[in-house]
């Protein structure tokens, strides 16, 4: 019954948005209320669950997305993105620009949370697409594939790091195995798959499209790269700090504060305001208008993300995830495959990769010791399953759709299939490695 209810709600959501042309935020609210009532949440607690879901997801993403949009707008209008695109294409040639973006996405994706990496790299993707008249999806999806892989497979991202602890795996070994799986997954789900997407038309958000400036008006290459990548640099420094052996608690607390993604984005925006704004002769009043425009353009994205968080919380609060995993655990399957299936089912049902991974881990954690399963591979198997078929209940789906301004059909054909390829290739890699390590 629970599975049927989820299926009905997902179909209803798709029909409201695609056929009924209902605003996605309103559609999420209606479906969340319907799901809560159908799944037995008390009437007086349905709204509270919706509010909690919105608050939880926006609490994590609001500052990051808004500051990221402002930074992206400034990188675009200042000419920094134009300069970066010029330097990259001149270095590798237009023919290989896609591979250059993929490599950049992978390197940036290791220390960066997915949401930050997304809003940080989208302006660069759009700048390359506009300047060299290349399809935005063809150029951008491979880079996003590399971000997605690092998010699901590689520590120090929250989900794989937590799974390492739950299964008593080794962080370094998991990272090495994850790297072995990540590279073919990115190549096949990125540049190879993107060859079939060249005909998808995309008109990305105008907020990241700036008029081309003459060469003498552009900021320097060093300023452009360092400012645009400053969040990456700060987060990498923060990640490396614990290995310096410093034990002073006050310094550790200060570094933890400065290394928080929201603070990192704020510091990056303040510095960018000077290096790409005031230093380039722009007035603060002009920059304030740019920042306001950036936030206006992502308002709908924030509402849609809030709506997806509401639906996710309703499904979690109803206990549906436990019912699903309880039914699946009765099947007699290879533990690595079972972990992947459970994570994939929860991912498709709830939308959250992190929730899917952690919930699946709680179900199969006892099987690891009982069946002598390699714990490092179980981390990666569940991580791969948690990336399966992203669709309308996943905030990442809507971020991609709205930023790239695509139809739901084209979003599924590109984004959802890419995520599924990453998931399946990840499982295949786990099973192959499992044949050689015990």
TrEMBL record:
Alphabetical UniProt keywords: Cell membrane, Membrane, Transmembrane, Transmembrane helix, Transport
Superkingdom assignment: Bacteria
Main location: membrane
Transmembrane feature ranges: 30-50, 57-76, 96-122, 134-154, 174-197, 218-245, 251-277, 298-317, 337-365, 377-400, 420-437
Subcellular compartments: Cell membrane
GO CC annotation terms, alphabetical: plasma membrane
A GO molecular-function descriptor: gluconate transmembrane transporter activity
Topology versus the membrane: Multi-pass membrane protein
Record family assignment: Belongs to the GntP permease family.
NCBIfam families with a match to the protein in the record: gntP
Name of the protein this chain belongs to: Gnt-I system high-affinity gluconate transporter
Species: Mucilaginibacter pineti
